[in-house]
């Protein structure tokens, strides 16, 4: 079944992107109106349709955010409640809208790439990977092998970040600080490898720049620490109890909402761009329960797979002959929270139009579906199990005509 993956406004019409996760085949379609899919309003930033007020309710509306502890970034949720239980909820987009896409236009590729890296720093490797997939002609496999390793390294610290936040929500203070330290260790590896903690400047047109390859030697110790910490964390019955059955999504929910990434795989739906990425050989990790615990278990298994992929790659500087690819082209990358999508149009080697869609724009809606009916103290466990951020959700419209 094809998923509705993105909607952009271009030439006075809606440009829709449909993706078959089994084959990797994408279809682009210009439409006068939105397609009849539940995720369609959110893909253009309109989330009011998801706030359904039950008839006869005496629930009270409140807004959580845009500046509130527990959200991490400027963003908000509108919540309907009559006390402790969440009756209805919707994400509110737009607070992190910065016009990144327009700032990328009419520049040479390397300059556009430097702007894109700063759109949402913790997913910089994923966005640059997807962007270069869209705009590079004749990609060199050696270059992509290193880019793949950097993408998996980025996945590691984002997964560590999500686990440390889940542990923190359950007051598992020792585990919280240790997983936070693992995240910091990976960021320091990035700093030594590339000169920047988020890898800015590493992925360039036709090349990958690596400053200190020996920095990767620290990864072996991180893997051993991760395994030990994970064993201890999963022995905590209090921690497991807080995640079990919390913010549950069924397989049918995933299909109905076109959800992606961790959200989908935690509900036994194998949606992972790496399965049809020519530079990967990958089988997705899934779990059937669909709750916050299931999403955690998927992360833990994915960390192990990331270690394997990185250890099988030689991280070094690589350069190849490459040229920009004119026309409208699609690029995808599987980030830690789900796939990011780049639709780029080049003319004469310069970027003339671009559309960006992060997994957060889709999966905040999935989170809202799952957390409905839960109590407020379950909110952080549900939210952190998705690993989303609002900067990623607010990349959407592209260079709208």
Key features of this structure:
401 residues; alpha+beta; Cytochrome-c3 Hydrogenase, chain B; three-stranded antiparallel beta sheet; 14 helices; 40% helix
Briefly summarize what is shown.
By secondary structure, the protein is α+β, with helices and mostly antiparallel strands. Helix content is 40%, strand content 18%. Helix 3 runs antiparallel to helix 4 (124-135), helix 5 packs antiparallel against helix 11 and helix 6 (173-194) runs antiparallel to helix 7 (219-234).
Structure, explained:
The protein is α+β, with helices and mostly antiparallel strands and 401 residues long. The protein has a domain at 100-358: Cytochrome-c3 Hydrogenase, chain B (Orthogonal Bundle), CATH 1.10.645.10. It has 14 helices and 14 strands. It has helices spanning 40-43, 100-104, 109-117, 124-135, 141-169, 173-194, 219-234, 237-243, 251-257, 261-265, 292-311, 359-371, 379-384, 390-393; strands at 3-10, 13-19, 26-31, 60-64, 76-81, 86-92, 136-137, 203-204, 207-208, 318-319, 323-324, 327-334, 339-347, 350-357. The strands form 5 sheets. A 3-stranded antiparallel sheet has the order 1-2-3, with no helix packed on it. Strands 4-5-6 form a 3-stranded antiparallel sheet. Strand 12 and strand 13 form a beta hairpin. Helix 5 runs antiparallel to helix 6 (173-194). The chain is globular, with a radius of gyration of 20 Å. The chain starts with a strand and ends in an 8-residue tail after the last helix. The mean pLDDT is 94.
| Apparent shape | globular
**pLDDT averaged over residues:** 94
What is the CATH third-level topology name of the domain at 100-358?
Cytochrome-c3 Hydrogenase, chain B
Sheet with the most strands, sense and barrel status: 3 strands, antiparallel
> How does CATH name the architecture of the domain at 100-358?
Orthogonal Bundle
For the biggest β-sheet, the strand order reads 1-2-3
Helix content: 25-40%
CATH superfamily of the domain at 100-358: Cytochrome-c3 Hydrogenase, chain B
Structural class: alpha+beta
Query: Tell me, what is the CATH class of the domain at 100-358?
Result: Mainly Alpha
The share of residues in extended strands comes to 15-25%
| Number of helices in the DSSP assignment | 14
Poorly predicted ranges (pLDDT <50, ≥5 residues)? none
* Number of strand segments: 14
Topology as H/E string?
A: EEEHEEEHHHEHHEEHHHHHEEEEEHHH
Rg, Cα atoms, Å:
20 Å
The separation of the N and C termini measures: 31 Å
